[in-house]
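Dear V.,

Thank you for sending over the compound details. I've combined the ligand you provided, zinc ion, with the protein sequence from our construct and run the structure prediction for the complex. I'm sharing the raw inputs here so there's no ambiguity about protonation or stereochemistry in the SMILES, which I know was a concern on your side last time.
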Amino acid sequence: MTCDCATCDEKEKAARGCERETADRRHWWKLEGYKEPFRRCPRKLTTPTALYVAAFAGLVGDGVFPDAGGWVDQAAVYLRACSVVNAARAASEEKKRGRRNS
Ligand SMILES: [Zn+2]
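Below is the predicted structure of the protein with zinc ion bound, written out as structure tokens.
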């Protein structure tokens, strides 16, 4: 995620929607299943834990784990969270491919 609210100055926070909805369309973003675009900074609409899980789930595909060792050394709840994130990503990619081919 490109925005880090802690490092944004006031002008960037206003443009990215860190404090309130932004009118700057360049910073609006969409999410599968939602009709309207989000006009707030994504970091304000989720939790740090959810962002870490999403980031680490992406690294697992490259064989990088948060804890030392392999699959069996990782926390079960973490592996389950990775499964949920990766299934959602796969479904989203499949939907995008379907739209491109239609
Ligand atoms: Zn922000």
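A first observation: The pocket of zinc ion is lined by residues 3, 5, 8, 16, 18, 41, 43-44 (CB under 6 Å).

Warm regards,
I. M.
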